[in-house]
Amino acid sequence: MNILIVGASGLVGGNIYHHLKAVSEFNIYGTYNSFEVPNLIRFNSSINYKSYPKIILETAWDVIIHTGALTNVDFCEENIADSEYYTVESTINLVKLSKVHHSKLIYISTDYIFDGKDGPYREDAQVNPLSIYGKHKLISENIVSQLNDYLILRITNVYGDELRNKNFLSRITQDLLLGNEKSVSGATDQFASPINALDIAKAIFNLIIDDKKGVYHLASTDYLSRVQFLQIIKKYFNLLKIESYKTSDLKQKAERPLRGGLNAEKFLTEYSDFHFTNIDDYILKLLKAHDAKL
Ligand SMILES: NC(=O)c1ccc[n+]([C@@H]2O[C@H](COP(=O)([O-])OP(=O)(O)OC[C@H]3O[C@@H](n4cnc5c(N)ncnc54)[C@H](OP(=O)(O)O)[C@@H]3O)[C@@H](O)[C@H]2O)c1
């Protein structure tokens, strides 16, 4: 099976790339766009697909996993054309490529397609994105869902191992593991269901093997505000100082879904043996790896 992972230099794509390589016999190809990573193909999926590199255009892909998007929500709000280019155009082109090869397209989406009035959300909940980022992800979902064979996997608040250590949890724990004090502020009123990127990769492996189609929400059992997330980190790192705020105090460019998050019951009903890990599990793993280095 030939599998293309677009965005393998990123948090989610990187975890999918390494996990599928480790557990499967599939031919896995991964791409980067601006952040060069050895063994990955340089590729901008937003350009006209006819100008795609030969290897991307001509390989008979069984599965294309599209993780590429512009993910800075406030930047997207003020740079609508850029958001459209990286998030929507890339999807239009990868849908065309999927049609050429009759590939399954797996699209990674978000709880930002909901308005955050009554999360955690199930797959069939009413969509109503508040931000440009959310709107562009929803437009992309709608384009993907025109295919016969697609999976839309919605996730939120992802943490985990990544080359750039740029996710919320990694950024905070980096300093704390070095013994440095750190002050971090978090909203008391923004709720989501954080998930480890490795669990996303494991779920995708199952969904590919079983040739599943349609929409799935992936989420751990953690359903937390940002401050509650920080309080979990503080259990392990007393050097963390937490400041709390209300979202309305911040005057962020893009409106956030406040009671966001996702309900993964559909996935867990079909995969009753699957275990989503949580933030405690991940911090304990980091501490163990850190101690082993000393
Ligand atoms: N992280 C979260 O909490 C979260 C939550 C909900 C949904 N999601 C969704 O999950 C997906 C992955 O997010 P992430 O956190 O892994 O983001 P990330 O770390 O920023 O990774 C994004 C990846 O996409 C690549 N990319 C962006 N535009 C591209 C283009 N036009 N052509 C080819 N590659 C392109 C980037 O390449 P370079 O970096 O090399 O330029 C990078 O590898 C996104 O679709 C995002 O909307 C993420």
TrEMBL record:
Name of this chain's protein: dTDP-4-dehydrorhamnose reductase
Pathway per the UniProt entry: Carbohydrate biosynthesis; dTDP-L-rhamnose biosynthesis
Keywords: NADP, Oxidoreductase
Keyword Oxidoreductase: yes
Pfam families (UniProt xref): RmlD_sub_bind
Entry keyword NADP: yes
Family of the protein in this entry: Belongs to the dTDP-4-dehydrorhamnose reductase family.
